[in-house]
């Protein structure tokens, strides 16, 4: 599993970082992006599900900190 720390970064920076990292991954591999901006959840999920049809999910791991998992299709 690959990991990106996007704490303190606002969109579109998390999307740009995830785009770059996902290019390196093989189909079926997962990327976890950690963010502390709730608006990034909707932006990231909408982007990768809509543009690439990648599976996305997210969980709040601590109060105000979320991990978004993106599976490359």
Automatic annotation (TrEMBL):
Family indicated by similarity: Belongs to the sulfur carrier protein TusA family.
InterPro entries: TusA-like, TusA-like_sf
Transferase recorded as keyword: yes
Domain of life (superkingdom): Bacteria
Gene3D superfamilies (UniProt xref): TusA-like domain
UniProt cross-references to SUPFAM superfamilies, sorted A to Z: SirA-like
Name listed for the protein in its UniProt record: TusA-related sulfurtransferase
Domain UPF0033: residue ranges: 4-28
Any GO MF annotation of the entry: transferase activity
Keywords noted in UniProt: Transferase
Keyword Transferase recorded: yes
């Amino acid at each position: 599993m690959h990991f990106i720390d996007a704490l303190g970064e606002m969109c579109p920076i998390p999307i740009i970082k995830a785009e770059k990292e996902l290019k390196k991954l093989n189909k079926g591999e997962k990327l976890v992006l950690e963010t502390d901006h709730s608006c990034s959840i909707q932006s990231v999920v909408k982007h990768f599900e809509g543009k690439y049809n990648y599976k996305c999910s997210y969980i709040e791991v601590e109060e105000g900190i979320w991990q978004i998992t993106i599976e490359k299709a």
